[in-house]
Design goal:
Order of helices and strands: HHHHHHHHHHHHHH
Radius of gyration: 21 Å
Helix content: over 70%
Low-confidence stretches: none
Largest sheet: none
Structural class: mainly alpha
Number of helices: 14
Shape: globular
Distance between the termini: 19 Å
Number of strands: 0
């Protein structure tokens, strides 16, 4: 019996709304739900019962911290989930993810060059520069990710097989990690710590102009990725059948890879290398919707990815923790059991 797809989508949207409010509600400072609704919705009547001093503090926490973090988590989760689905489809590999071609490693290499060499060359520690340091790290990550993506696109012009391209991407990632290891070895302890903290992943680094740019980029890239739905459905049928339908295999494959790579590059630049979401969510969406049709799977994966990222963000900021847990620690705890459960279910 096929599931009611519309009901499932609506249920996932409702879950996202609940998780969105939960992210605004949970934190080290207790803010009443009525105050949150009044502040976010701009409803003065709901704020009359509270003192002006408390409202000022709560408004600053919500607008400057919790709201940007929640929006970033939603967009990052959606982007990584769609990117992972595209990679798994184009390579026909259930273990493929956004970082499979080394794009995330390229972003990490760009950040490593800036963070680990800034003190040695210019005598500046980026972690002390605040906003300017965050902007420099974001730009470096984008440049590094796009450089690796450009290299993959160049290599793909001369490589026919998906497996060969996949291996080249994996080797590129190993090479980037090797260079990062050398840079860390010769860098001061403070720079290495700043780089390690960035590598743990975080949804709270975007605010103000950075959040606006990140939101605009994701709102452009996610709809553009939906244009790949028909291509991805045809690629599932196999190369010979796709060729008989008139599909240019190489060009279509590159279009999907570029779309996936750009999504992974932007998310990594603004949030750090977030693991497991891009790998786990496509499997979870397939299990929920029991279909391989990307007309359903793409929007389902997008909404499920946003929900899972919000869950991880809530767990990372759960009351009782000092500050916040690293996002990658939480995504691994949540994502690994999901992948194991889905794979074992398929096996049985």
């Amino acid at each position: 019996m096929k599931p009611n797809y519309l009901l499932l989508i609506l249920l996932l949207l409702a879950v996202n709304i609940v998780l969105f409010v939960t992210n605004l509600l949970i934190g080290t400072v207790n803010i009443p739900l009525q105050a949150i609704v009044g502040i976010v919705g701009g409803i003065p009547a709901m704020l009359e019962d509270f003192a002006e001093g408390d409202l000022t503090i709560w408004r600053n926490i919500i607008v400057s911290s919790r709201m940007p973090q929640t929006v970033t988590a939603m967009l990052a989760g959606a982007g990584l989930a769609v990117s992972g689905l595209q990679m798994q489809t184009v390579f026909r590999n259930p273990l493929a993810g956004p970082s499979v071609l080394g794009v995330s490693n390229g972003a990490s290499l760009g950040v490593a060059f800036v963070v680990l060499l800034s003190n040695s060359i210019g005598g500046v520690v980026l972690s002390r520069l605040g906003y300017l340091g965050d902007v420099a790290i974001t730009i470096a990550a984008i440049i590094g990710a796009l450089a690796v993506l450009g290299l993959i696109i160049l290599v793909a012009q001369y490589v026919r097989g998906n497996v060969t391209l996949l291996l080249i991407g994996v080797m590129t990632g190993y090479l980037a990690n090797a260079i990062i290891g050398v840079l860390k070895f010769f860098s001061p302890e403070e720079d290495v710590k700043a780089y390690v903290v960035w590598g743990l992943g975080c949804f709270s680094q975007t605010s103000g102009t950075q959040l606006l740019v990140f939101t605009i980029l994701m709102c452009l890239l996610l709809p553009l990725s939906m244009l790949m739905i028909k291509t991805m459905n045809i690629l599932l049928l196999g190369d010979n059948y796709a060729r008989n339908l008139g599909l240019d295999i190489r060009r279509s494959r590159m279009a999907v890879i570029v779309s996936s790579g750009l999504l992974a590059a932007v998310v990594t630049a603004y949030c750090g290398p977030i693991m497991f979401i891009g790998l786990a969510v496509p499997h979870l969406a397939r299990s929920l919707f029991r279909t391989s049709d990307h007309r359903l799977l793409m929007p389902a994966t997008l909404v499920t990815g946003a929900a899972l990222a919000l869950v991880c963000n809530v767990l990372a900021r759960f009351p009782g923790f000092e500050g916040a847990l690293p996002v990658n620690s939480v995504t691994a705890l949540v994502g690994a059991p999901i992948i194991a459960a889905v794979l074992l279910r398929k096996k049985s």
